[in-house]
Amino acid sequence: MTAAEQEPFDVGAFLTAAVPMVGTLALEYVETTAQRAVLKFRDQAAYRNHIGGPHAGAMFTLAESASGAIVTAAFGHLMAEATPLPTTATIDFKKVARGDVTATATLGRPVDDIVAELKGGARPEFPIHVAIQRDVDDAVTGEMTIVWTLRPNN
Questions:
Q1: Is the dihedral of CA 48, 42, 73, 22 positive or negative?
Q2: Model pTM?
Q3: CB-based contact 66:46 (threshold 8 Å)
Q4: CA distance 59 to 42
Q5: Using CB atoms within 10 A of its CB, is residue 120 exposed (0-12), middle (13-18) or buried (19+)?
Q6: What is the edge-to-edge ordering of all strands in the sheet holding 82-93?
Q7: For residues 25 and 62, is the Cβ–Cβ distance under 8 A?
Q8: Once rounded to an integer, what is the mean pLDDT over residues 122-147?
Q9: Which of 15, 66, 129, 137 has CB 3.0 to 4.6 Å from 103, enough for a Cys bridge?
Q10: Mean pLDDT in residue range 34-45
Q11: Distance between CA 132 and CA 117 in Å, rounded?
Q12: Residue 100 CA, distance from chain mean position
């Protein structure tokens, strides 16, 4: 099989296997590119909070997992050179989330700029912004910004 005939790398399947919490929460990878990732968390009674919505920890994990999908898609080919690590994360809870929720993550800097910094000997940092929305009405229930770095492996 030639490289052109190979199946594309399935970021969602990889992260589901590599990160047990993803499987525990049954997160669904809807879309994953180097600039954007969309993940869904289906309503599950075992992960509800005291007001009937998804627990804050589940929403944090959903958003962080969406950011990690972008990191894997954009920089997975550099794992021999650098280790991706989150450095900071802030989450704002805007509205009560109930039912299924979807996290949409977007990369805050161009991939090429980040790779150039790494290749130039720097330890690049880059933000990923995530919006968490109720599926029933698309209301934004939370927003997260997570800053990642690529730590050189030398």
A1: positive
A2: 0.92
A3: no
A4: 11
A5: exposed
A6: 28-32, 36-41, 101-107, 125-134, 140-152, 82-93
A7: yes
A8: 98
A9: 66
A10: 97
A11: 30
A12: 17
Strand ranges inside 11-139, DSSP E:
28-32, 36-41, 82-93, 101-107, 125-134
Span 70-82, pLDDT tens digits = 999 999 999 999 9
AA identity, residue 82: A
pLDDT reading at 1 higher than 50:
no
DSSP assigned state of 53: S
Identify the pLDDT of residue 9.
84
- pLDDT tens column, 88-109: 999 999 999 999 999 999 999 9
What is d(CA 127, CA 109) in angstroms, rounded to the nearest whole number?
7
